[in-house]
Amino acid sequence: MIKLENILPADIERRSMEIIESEIGDMSAFSEHEGLIVKRCVHTTADFDYKKNLRFSENAAELGIDALKSGAVIVTDTQMAFSGISKPACKTLGCEVRCFMSDPDVAEKAKHLGVTRAAVSVDKAVQLFGDRRLIFAVGNAPTALIRLYEHITEHGFRPALIIGVPVGFVNVVEAKELIMSTDVPYIAAAGRKGGSNVAAAIVNAMLYTLYQR
Questions:
Q1: Is residue 188 a contact partner of residue 198, using CB atoms and an 8 Å limit?
Q2: Residue 112 CB: number of other CB atoms within 10 A?
């Protein structure tokens, strides 16, 4: 006979986190903030592989949180990631979430140049905001990471943080490795796994350290 837990809707996340903490094992390799990000990714995906797949450059989680405290601009590569990031938390902290993928000028330029909209979206973000506490949350398009790498290595661009977790098979692993080869703070998912939901989860994990829901 199947036995279901009687959980109130408001308690589902708390109970989920209790289960994750009971099953995830030793987390001593992670800082406090890194551990919160790992658990949030597991909560979002029900995939404990993120414990071994997530890569953090030195103090990346802390630097991301500092950027959010200062009112960062978070740029996503999908509307799904844009929608998944907590708007109440961003509003409270004075942060802005932007996604340029559906902008007509981005589509037109991408078609003209024969490149992806994700690459042009990166160009647009760089032109609009420069180095102004930018956090890139990339969960779908490896071409966004490749274009970021070009801005970093060719033009000295330095965002506050790159979240590099695109999912897929073509140039995904390689694009992540490019970002991890730079000296820019990053949080990346090694291998093929990731997704827009994971990108949003990482941003939210940092936001929730600053914002009480």
A1: no
A2: 9
- Strand (E) or helix (H) holding 81: helix 79-84
pLDDT for 10-45, tens place per residue?
789 999 999 999 999 999 999 999 999 999 999 999
Cα 31 to Cα 37: distance, rounded to the nearest angstrom: 10
Q: For residue range 63-115, what is the model confidence (pLDDT) as tens digits?
A: 999 999 999 999 999 999 999 999 999 999 999 999 999 999 999 999 999 99
Asked about 43 being catalytic, the answer comes back as yes
Burial class (CB in 10 A: 0-12, 13-18, 19+), 24: middle
Q: Considering just the CA atoms, what is the radius of gyration of the chain in Å?
A: 17
Among residues 33, 43, 151, 155, the one annotated as catalytic is 43
Contacts 24+ apart (CB under 8 A), 7-14: 13/43
